[in-house]
């Protein structure tokens, strides 16, 4: 079936030492929501050129699945690397690594794995708006409103998570580990 990918996770000696996790969103749920978001974004940007700005590293998995399912949209792919976490805690400081692409007068969709405190996306939003894009919207895999410190709303959200959980898998990591899990899990 198009859009479906099957994954198997084989335990390794290193994975045996990782914290225990519980699945929050399955691969089937992720696939369904990515398809629904892709259809909505395709309708909203039909016939237009769209700069898809993916936040690395976490947003890569979500962006890859989402962008490949867009229809009738001319996609220009850009990346930005931001850092705000040290281990499992937000540092409270946003570190832009590299230069932002030019988005003046362009339709822009920022793609990110999750938004929690809102600080990272608020900082990016301010920097991008200063360039004067035609439009600026956000596609987020998981919106963790329980951790919000800065008001920030996203137009395209795959999943809302009301509780404060540390998530791993599908791009989200625990200090660089567990990012490649095929589903989204919380550390228990």
Quick summary of this structure?
The protein has 188 residues and is α/β, with parallel strands linked by helices. The protein contains three helices and nine strands.
Describe this entry's structure for a reader.
The protein is an alpha/beta fold. It has one domain (23-84, 95-187): Rossmann fold (3-Layer(aba) Sandwich), CATH 3.40.50.2020. The chain has three helices and nine strands; from the N terminus they run E-H-E-H-E-E-E-H-E-E-E-E. It has helices at residues 27-44, 59-68, 119-129, and strands at 21-25, 49-56, 74-86, 89-97, 107-115, 135-143, 156-160, 167-168, 184-187. Strand 3 and strand 4 (89-97) form a beta hairpin. Helix 1 crosses helix 2 (59-68).
Spatial order of strands in the largest sheet? 4-3-2-5-6-7
Number of helices: 3
Q: What is the beta-strand fraction?
A: 25-35%
Going by helix content, strand content and strand pairing, the class is alpha/beta
Give helix % range.
10-25%
- Low-confidence sequence ranges: none
Rg, nearest Å: 16 Å
Largest sheet: 6 strands, mixed
Give the CA-based shape: globular
Q: Which sequence of SSEs, written as H and E, runs from N to C?
A: EHEHEEEHEEEE
Q: What is the CATH C-level name?
A: Alpha Beta
CATH-defined architecture: 3-Layer(aba) Sandwich
Overall mean pLDDT stands at 89
């Amino acid at each position: 079936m198009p859009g479906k990918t099957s994954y198997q996770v084989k335990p390794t000696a290193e994975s045996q030492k990782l914290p225990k996790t519980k699945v929050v969103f399955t691969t089937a749920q992720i696939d369904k929501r990515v398809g629904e978001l892709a259809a909505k974004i395709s309708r909203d940007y039909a016939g237009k050129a769209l700069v898809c700005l993916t936040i690395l590293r976490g947003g890569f998995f979500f962006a890859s699945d989402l962008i490949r399912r867009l229809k009738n949209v001319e996609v220009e792919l850009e990346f930005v690397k931001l850092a705000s976490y040290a281990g499992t805690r937000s540092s409270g400081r946003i570190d832009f690594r590299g230069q932002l692409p030019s988005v003046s007068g362009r339709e822009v969709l920022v793609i990110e794995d999750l938004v929690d405190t809102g600080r990272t996306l608020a900082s990016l939003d301010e920097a991008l708006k200063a360039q004067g894009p035609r439009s600026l919207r956000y596609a987020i895999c998981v919106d963790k409103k329980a951790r919000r410190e800065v008001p920030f709303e996203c137009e395209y959200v795959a999943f809302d998570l009301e509780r404060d959980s540390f998530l791993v898998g599908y791009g989200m990591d625990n200090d660089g580990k567990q990012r490649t899990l095929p589903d989204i899990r919380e550390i228990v």
